[in-house]
Amino acid sequence: MSVKRSKKSSPPPSSRSKSSDTAATSSNRISKGTISAIVVILALSYDNIRLRYQASNAESANRNLSSNEDEIKLRYKTWEEAPASYEEFDHDNDPSVCRLPIVTVEEWEKNKMWEGETPVIVKNVTDGWKALENWSKEELLRRYPDVVVGMGSSKELGQTGPDQAGKALTRTTIYDYVVNWMHSSNKYVFDRNLRLPDGGFLEDCHPYPMPTRMYEEDPDALFESGMPENLMWKDHLALTIGHDTQGLTFHRHNAAWNTVVFGAKRWILYDAERIANITRLKTMTRDIRNPIQLDTANWIRKLYNKDDRKHEIRNYGHDCVQRAGEMMYVPRGWAHMVLNIGDTVAVVSERGLDGVN
Question: Which has the closest alpha carbon to 267: 326, 336, 194?
Fold first, then answer.
């Protein structure tokens, strides 16, 4: 059985064709727009992926290049391999030259020698320190590359002090300093922006020397004792790293100790009472005829043997060589200059100063 459609229900042919063409055109427009959008999205995604890939490859190449450059710039694999002017500046601490007590850790602690007014050298202070292994050059760069320190010229640090050096002290990392600056500039790390305990780096210096160790063991007892803070040994520690013949020129400050982990230091110390005479101080530290502040190495070369300076040092001061593992204690007010013999790494603490974050 067939069913015939009424003619009334069917639109005229021209109408059907027009409606059909409109729908097809609309469909084509949507389809083309969608495709265009997809193409754009895919193109952007591809560019993004390509750029990330290129950046990743560039970063990898830079790391490899940096690694190769570091190997070239690290001229000396160990601290000990670097140049060291032992022949020019070292001596055997003859009692008539050094004139200081050289004691054991036990004697230092038993007699509380930090309460005295005489400089002291203490032997074997670094026995048991992890720093002996962890601060070898390769290990230091591997373990603590990102530790931030300050560096400046020895002359500027000696004249202004490491705490007041201001713009003269440039912030960098241990890795950057050792690899890029240490043997290609006169920059010297003397940074007290460290505090104990820090959870790693400075703990390599356990056990801390007395009297700094008292603060670590019981800080409350110190503050409750009523002792003035400028007489307390608190959580202040400083790090020094420098190459051969670097060091601070004549300067003075509160009582402090300096412990050498690697290398050696020559010290010229001058009696606090003698330098109360400002004319004598200027005569000792500078050439009055040419009053330019010399660095430590050139002071020893050019001024030490002139104008009775050696007589003054040999009778009212001290000329000593401090070796790795030893601590030099300098009482308050003593003028002193320090010279590195070879690459030298040391830790310092000064009475009355707080640690700095």
Answer: 336
Q: What is the mean pLDDT of residues 26-34?
A: 52
Can you say whether the dihedral through the CA atoms of 96, 100, 105, 110 is positive or negative?
positive
E strands, 49-111, are: 102-103
Burial of 347 per CB tally in 10 Å (0-12, 13-18, 19+): buried
Question: b/e per residue, 109-122, with b = 16+ CB within 10 A?
Answer: beeebbeeeebbbb
| DSSP strands (E only) in the chain | 102-103, 120-122, 148-153, 170-173, 187-195, 236-242, 256-270, 317-323, 327-330, 335-350
Confidence band, pLDDT 50/70/90 cuts, at residue 156:
low
Distance CA 166, CA 156 (A): 10
Say how far apart CA 33 and CA 113 lie, in whole Å: 89
HSE-CB of 246 using CA atoms within 13 angstroms = 27
Between CA 263 and CA 256 the distance in angstroms is 19
Number of H helices, E strands in the chain: 12, 10
Three-state secondary-structure class, residue 303: coil
Closest residue by Cα to residue 245 from 183, 159, 329, 291: 183
d(CA 310, CA 216) in angstroms, rounded, equals 41
Q: Per residue in 167-207, pLDDT tens?
A: 567 889 999 999 999 998 889 898 765 554 455 688 899 89
pLDDT digits (tens, 9 = 90+) for 134-145: 999 999 999 999
Strands 102-103 and 120-122: parallel
- By three-state DSSP, how is residue 161 classified? coil
Please tell me the distance from the alpha carbon of residue 62 to that of residue 35, in angstroms, as a whole number.
Answer: 40
Do 154 and 296 contact (CB within 8 A), yes or no? Answer: yes
